[in-house]
Amino acid sequence: MSRRLTPRGAERRRALLDTAARRFAADGYHPTSVAAIVDDLGVGKGVFYWYFDSKDDCYRQILVDAQRSLRAAQRDAIADEHDPARRIDAGIRASMHWLHDNRHLFALLEQARTDERFAPLVRRGEQQTVADALPHIRAGIAAGLLRREDPELLAVAILGVTDALARAVLLEAGDGPGSDDAAERAAEAAVSFCRRGLLVVPGAGTARDTA
Amino acid sequence: MSRRLTPRGAERRRALLDTAARRFAADGYHPTSVAAIVDDLGVGKGVFYWYFDSKDDCYRQILVDAQRSLRAAQRDAIADEHDPARRIDAGIRASMHWLHDNRHLFALLEQARTDERFAPLVRRGEQQTVADALPHIRAGIAAGLLRREDPELLAVAILGVTDALARAVLLEAGDGPGSDDAAERAAEAAVSFCRRGLLVVPGAGTARDTA
Amino acid sequence: MSRRLTPRGAERRRALLDTAARRFAADGYHPTSVAAIVDDLGVGKGVFYWYFDSKDDCYRQILVDAQRSLRAAQRDAIADEHDPARRIDAGIRASMHWLHDNRHLFALLEQARTDERFAPLVRRGEQQTVADALPHIRAGIAAGLLRREDPELLAVAILGVTDALARAVLLEAGDGPGSDDAAERAAEAAVSFCRRGLLVVPGAGTARDTA
Amino acid sequence: MSRRLTPRGAERRRALLDTAARRFAADGYHPTSVAAIVDDLGVGKGVFYWYFDSKDDCYRQILVDAQRSLRAAQRDAIADEHDPARRIDAGIRASMHWLHDNRHLFALLEQARTDERFAPLVRRGEQQTVADALPHIRAGIAAGLLRREDPELLAVAILGVTDALARAVLLEAGDGPGSDDAAERAAEAAVSFCRRGLLVVPGAGTARDTA
DNA sequence: CATGAATGAGGCTTCATTCAT
DNA sequence: GATGAATGAAGCCTCATTCAT
After folding, report:
1. How far is it between the farthest Cα atoms of chain A?
2. So what's the pLDDT on residue C179?
3. Interface of D with C in 55-94 (CB under 8 A)
4. pTM for the model
C-alpha cells in the first residue's frame, strides 16, 4: 500500500491497526475475521482494504510496528548505562515493562512466532534484539565480568528467561490491579536469574550484586 | 470417543494422530484441513470422524499424548539422580533431547500455547512440569545448594531457558546432519546458564561446578 | 481435477457442465455467478468445487468439450467425400448444422474468443480447424480446382463466412420454428459464396457449379 | 449526461474515453475497474463520474464513437467509386485499414458483440453497414455484374470474410513492424476471396479481375 | 468400517458508486 | 471541477461435518 494519507486517513489507519491488534491477540489470526475488525470500529468493510492490501498485510504491519516499538524501548533504557552487565539488566527491565504495557502485542508476537507464515518476520526482530545485545555481552566477557560462553547462546537464554517470566506473570495472571507490581517482580526475578543462575556460590555470599 | 478399538483400529488411530501432528506442526491448526490429513494417509474422510469427534478433538489428543510423553522422559531421566541440582540438570537434558527427537511436537506445543482454544491444555501440562520440579528446587534451597528465591519463578525461568535454546537451536536451524550435536550443545548451554547465570563470581574461580 | 468419478459423479459433472454452459452462453462469464449455476441445478455450492477447480476451470472444460464435439462433426462429415471441393462444402454444412444444434455453445465460443483469458484456447481450436482444412485446399489447388492463393488465408476466409452467416441467421434470428430451414439456407449461402464469390464470371454462364 | 463542456472538459472527456477504450479492449468490460481507468490517467474517481453516468455509459459511448468513425471511413472510401463492384472493394479495403489503425477498437467491438448487454448496440451498427452496402449489391446484380443471390446474405458474408481475415492477421499476429504490410495483404485477400471465391472458373483464366 | 459425494455457513476480497471536503 | 475516503452488496472459494451407499 503505502498510500499517501491525509491526517484523517492516518488516524483511521492507526485505529484499524489498534483494533485489529487487539482482536488478533485475543482470538488469533485465523479466527479473527476482517468483518469482526471493521465491525469493532463501526466502519464498512471496504475501509479495511483501502488501508491494507490484505488481512495478512495488516497483521504484518502490526508485527513490524510492535517490534520497532519494543526495540526503541530497549534502546532508550540502556542509553544511560555504561557498565555492560547493567546494560543487560536495564534491557531486561525495559523489555518486561514494555511487554506489560503492551500485553496484547506480546501475545501477538508469541503467536506469530509459531506461525510458519509470520515466523520469519518475528525471527528477524528477535535476531535483531540478539544482535543488539551481543556487543555488550562481548564487552562484559572481555572485561572479565561475564562468564566466557558463546555470547549468542547467552543472549538467547536471556531472552528466554524474560519471555518465560513475562508469559507466566503477565499473560497468565490476568489484568487485575497490582499487575504493575507483578511486572516489577517478574523483572527482578529475570534479572536475578540471568545474573547468578540457580546455584549458591560458596564464598560469594549473597552480596546484592557485583557488577 | 474412547471407542473400543481392534488392534488394527488402534494402529489406524495412531497413524492418524501422527500424520495429523506433522501437518498441524508444519502448517498450523487452521490451515490444516481434515481433507489434507486424510489425503496424506490415503484414506477417506469418514475414517477421521470414526476415530475423532472433531478436528479440535484430534488436536487435543495429540497435545495430551505429547505432554504425557515428554513428562515420562523427564521422569525417567531424574529417576537415578538424588542430588537436587543434578536432578534439575538431568531434567533439562532429557527435555532437550525429547524436544529434539520430537521436533514436530515441540513446534506443536509452542503453537498451541498461543491459541486461546488450546492454551489451557498446554498450560496445564507446563504447570505439571513446574510442579514436578518444585520439590527438587525446594530441597536444593533447604540444603543450601540453591539460591533462596521464589521456587516457582525459578522453575519458570529454567523452562524458559530450555525452550528458548531449543527453539533457537532445534527449530530454526533446520534438520541437517549434526543436529544431534546441536541438541547436545543446546542442552549444555541450558544447564550451564541455569546453574550459574551470566556473572563471573569473584572468588569462585572457574571451577567446573560445585553441585 | 480429473478426480476418479463414480457413474453418479460423472452424471453430476455432466449436468453441471451443461447448466453452466447455458448460463455462461446467455449471460457471459463474469455475470454468471457460481451461485446461479448451482441454484439452477438445485445443489449446494460445494458441489461445484468438488467437480471443478474453479469457475475458470469449468469454463475451459466447456470450451474444450465443445471444440472437440465440433471437430468430430466436421471429421465425420467429410469422411465420405473424396473430392477436395466437396470436402470443403461438407465441412461447411456440417459446421453450420452443429452450430445450429448447439447454438449456446456457438455463442460461448464467440464470446470466449474475445476474452484475453480464454482466447488462446479458442484460437488453438480454430487453428486446428484451419490445419484440418489445409490439406484439402492444397489438394484442390494442386488439382487445378481451386484458385492459387495462400491456403491458410483461404481457410480463414471460409471460417469467416461460415461464422458470420451462422451468427446472422442462427443467433440473431431467435429460435422460432423454421430455424432448421434457416440453418439450411445459411449453409447453402456459405457454400455458394465460398465457391464462387460475388462476381458473375463471363463465359461461365450460371452453371450451378463445376466442382 | 451530454453536459455542456468547456474546451478543457471536452479534452478530459476524450482522454477518458481513449484510456478506457484501451483498457476495456485489453482486459474486457468486467475485469476493467473504474479505478484502473482513472489511475491510468492519474486523476481521481470523481472525474469519471463527472463525465459519465456509469461505467456502462462510458463503454457505450466508446462503441458509438467507434462505429461512427468506421462508417465514416467506409463512406469516404467509396465516395469516388461509381462501379458497384469497385465500391465494395473500396469498402473492404477501407474497413481493413481502419481496423488496423484502430486495433483496440476492433477488439472492443468484437468483444461487445458477444455481450448480451451491448450486442444490440453493435448489431445496430453492423446492420447499418449492411444497409449501406445493400444498394450497391443490388445495383451490381441488376447490372449483371454480381451473382443473383440474396443481397443481405452476400453483405453478411463480405463482412464475415473481412472480420475473419482482420482478426487472423491484425489481432492475433501482434503489432510488430511490418504490420502495415499485413493489413495490406489481408485487404487483398479479402477482396480477392469476396470477388471470386474458391473455385477456378473454367474459361475465366486468371484474369486479374473482370469487374 | 470406509468412501466419496454433498451441504452451506462463513471467510477474504473487489468494485461501482456516492459524497464531504 | 476534483479528490480520496467510505460504503456494502456480491462474488469466489474453503472446509468442518454428515451420510447414503
Report:
1. 68
2. 72
3. 85, 88
4. 0.90
